[in-house]
Amino acid sequence: MKRYGIRITLPEGSTLSAAHLLGSGWESFRWYDTEDARERALVDMARDLPNYRKGDRLAQRLERVERDD
């Protein structure tokens, strides 16, 4: 089982948290075999995406999580 993860949630006030979109309790997880793989993914997920308009920011909160053995 992959132990090292990233929890993705929406920041307070995000328009995507509207009930007809993702909803206020939306969250997603991505899991990795190693802590190093998670850290590389975290850096990549936090960068500005090239397909967004200049000045737009991706609205997400990223949090390191780990599963217990």
Describe the protein in words.
The chain is of the alpha+beta class and 69 residues long. It is 17% helix and 26% strand. It has one helix and three strands. Strands 2-1-3 form a three-stranded antiparallel β-sheet, covered by helices on one side. The protein is flat and about 35 Å long.
pLDDT averaged over residues: 88
- What's the total helix number? 1
What is the overall shape?
A: flat
Strand order of the largest sheet: 2-1-3
Strand content: 25-35%
Q: Which stretches are poorly predicted, pLDDT < 50 over at least 5 residues?
A: none
Which percent bin holds the helix content?
10-25%
Based on CA atoms alone, the radius of gyration comes out at 14 Å
Through-space gap between termini: 9 Å
Count of beta strands:
3
SSE-based structural type: alpha+beta
Largest beta-sheet details: 3 strands, antiparallel
Keywords:
69 residues, three-stranded antiparallel beta sheet, flat, 1 helix, alpha+beta, 17% helix, single chain
Entry summary:
By secondary structure, the chain is an alpha+beta fold. 17% of the residues lie in helices and 26% in strands. The longest helix is centred in the middle third of the chain and has 12 residues, at 35-46.
Topology:
Blueprint: E1 4-9, E2 27-32, H1 35-46, E3 61-66
Antiparallel strand pairs: 1-2, 1-3
